[in-house]
């Protein structure tokens, strides 16, 4: 029994040493509590439990990291955009803290390679890299505190990946953008959806973007929400609201 205990302790020590070496290439500091980072990089498929029988994986730290990222990015925007309204700050934050961007950050750090699990990236889902980035942030917060995690988020996200001037021009949701533009310019608009059903095939949605009773564009997708976004994006490039202002359309 004592021999087995020694072997297990040696394996744990060896695993942590290996993890510490790998983290050196990612983190700008030396971790204190390696067990936090081990948890942040443990997939639920490993089915690991602690001494109390509770499952140990990255999901709880992912939840914490999500909140920490939002708080630090919010504070950054509040300071850098002193004249922006609450709504404008919210839109800017959404452009930074979105799933696509977090996935890119996780991929840039190659976090998926640190997972000790025999699953393909496809089996782990499209958002695994972003989830791991959030979990890593949660681990850093518990290990190094607010100032420590703030430095990491600035170095890995804000300083190297955020250009506020470009972000202000970037459209994160064409549907929201077209709705805001139409309401601001007193334009009548509708997203008219119909379900496109074909026997033996997956159902699709067709969505028409109608402006002042005239059909401007159409989107088609297996999701109504995606079809609306496609229709709005096509309408945006047809109308070009920022360049041309409200476009006159014939009433029918």
Low-confidence sequence ranges: 1-11, 247-252
**Range of strand content:** 5-15%
Calculate the mean pLDDT score and round it. 80
Q: Label the CATH architecture of the largest domain.
A: Orthogonal Bundle
Overall strand count: 5
State the end-to-end CA separation: 86 Å
User: What is the CATH first-level class name of the largest domain?
Assistant: Mainly Alpha
Structural key phrases:
mainly alpha, 58% helix, 11 helices, 252 residues, 3-stranded antiparallel β-sheet, Ribonuclease iii, N-terminal Endonuclease Domain, Chain A, disordered N terminus, Double Stranded RNA Binding Domain, 2 domains
How is the topology of this model organized?
Blueprint: H1 2-23, H2 34-40, E1 48-49, E2 55-56, H3 59-80, H4 86-96, H5 99-108, H6 121-124, H7 128-161, H8 164-169, H9 174-184, E3 189-196, E4 204-211, E5 214-221, H10 224-239, H11 241-244
Antiparallel strand pairs: 1-2, 3-4, 4-5
Question: Would you mind describing this structure in some detail?
Answer:
There is one protein chain. This protein has 252 residues and is mainly alpha-helical. It folds into two domains: 12-168, Ribonuclease iii, N-terminal Endonuclease Domain, Chain A (Orthogonal Bundle); 174-244, Double Stranded RNA Binding Domain (2-Layer Sandwich), CATH 3.30.160.20. Helix content is 58%, strand content 11%. The chain has helices at 2-23, 34-40, 59-80, 86-96, 99-108, 121-124, 128-161, 164-169, 174-184, 224-239, 241-244, and strands spanning 48-49, 55-56, 189-196, 204-211, 214-221. A three-stranded antiparallel beta sheet has the order 3-4-5, with helices on one face. Strands 1-2 form a two-stranded antiparallel sheet. Strand 4 (204-211) and strand 5 form a beta hairpin. It starts with a helix and ends in an 8-residue tail after the last helix. Residues 1-11 and 247-252 have low confidence and may be disordered.
